[in-house]
Amino acid sequence: MNLNRYKLLAGDASFRKFYRSKKNSIIVFSKKNKYSNLLVYDAINRCFNKNSIKAPKLKKEFYNENYIVIEDLGNETVFKILKKKGKNKLSYFNQIIKLLIQMQSIKNRKVKNFRNQNYTIPKYDKKILINEANLFCDWYVKNDLSKLKKKKFCKDFKKIIKELTLKLKLKDNIFVHRDFHVSNLMLVKNQIGLIDSQDALIGNKAYDLASLIDD
Q1: Contact 62, 171 (CB under 8 A)
Q2: Orientation of helix 89-104 relative to helix 206-214, angle to 10°
Q3: Distance CA 108, CA 44 (A)
Q4: Phi/psi at 112 (nearest 5 deg)?
Q5: Which of the 8 DSSP states describes residue 140?
Q6: Residue pLDDT, tens place only, 68-113
Q7: Are 96 and 78 in contact (CB under 8 A)?
Q8: Cross-strand bridge partners of residue 9
Q9: Helix, strand, or coil here: 130?
Q10: What is the SS3 assignment for 179?
Q11: Among 122, 118, 97, which residue's Cα sits nearest to residue 180?
């Protein structure tokens, strides 16, 4: 496929690229990690739609060619709406909280992907939490530190994170989007839909709410 024919859209933190076609469709291309970026992404969207939550529906799959075609939810993010003056922001936040409650109420965590394989949403265990917290050392520790100081800081930081995480006693039994913020919430015909949901896990109910508040 010649992707240069289509408009490249702003992407997310994954290895996916998004292109808008003229047929109210989005082409999602991913050569690297395509299992999670295409197959799992669609499976989570199917889970949402099955539970009456708006998410992009699959139109066609060309998995062997590293892309899928999904429904286009448009450009109207809740982030853009909240930036506009005169908008009743409280009403949108009420809708978002209702959506969050609806998402957290999902009980059936098994869904068939477009290859007719069962995909079960994994648990957000302590190992995943520790690995994610440790990304702080890769992304945020100042590069102007000497190698020795940076190495010592990261060693101490990871030790503290591990000790704290192992003391957590949280119930990990709620559907967690893991990227629940206003740029991933789309307004589609007065309904709020979800995008960028391939990282969903079963975890703690405070996670997505904390993301929203921080956002």
Answers
A1: no
A2: 160
A3: 11
A4: -90, 130
A5: T
A6: 999 999 989 999 988 887 778 888 899 999 999 999 999 988 898 9
A7: yes
A8: 18
A9: helix
A10: coil
A11: 97
d(CA 196, CA 63): 18
Cβ contact 58:25 at 8 Å: no
Cα 47 to Cα 94: distance, rounded to the nearest angstrom: 23
Q: How many residues does the chain have?
A: 215
Return left, alpha or beta for 196; rule: phi > 0 is left, psi -120 to 50 is alpha, else beta.
left
The CA distance from 160 to 164, in Å, is 6
Interatomic CA distance for residues 194 and 183, integer angstroms: 10
Q: Which residues contact 23 (CB under 8 A, 6 or more apart)?
A: none
Q: Are 84 and 46 in contact (CB under 8 A)?
A: no
Alpha-carbon span 202 to 104, nearest angstrom: 9
Displacement of CA 120 from its chain's centroid (Å): 16
Residue listed under structure tokens 């609806």:
102
- Residue 41's nearest CA partner among 24, 20, 26, 52 is 26
CB atoms within 10 A of CB 26: 19
Which tens digit of pLDDT belongs to each residue from 27-80?
999 988 899 899 999 999 999 999 999 999 999 999 999 999 999 999 899 999
Which of left, alpha, beta for 45 (phi over 0: left; psi -120 to 50: alpha)? alpha
Helices (H) then strands (E): counts for the chain: 8, 11
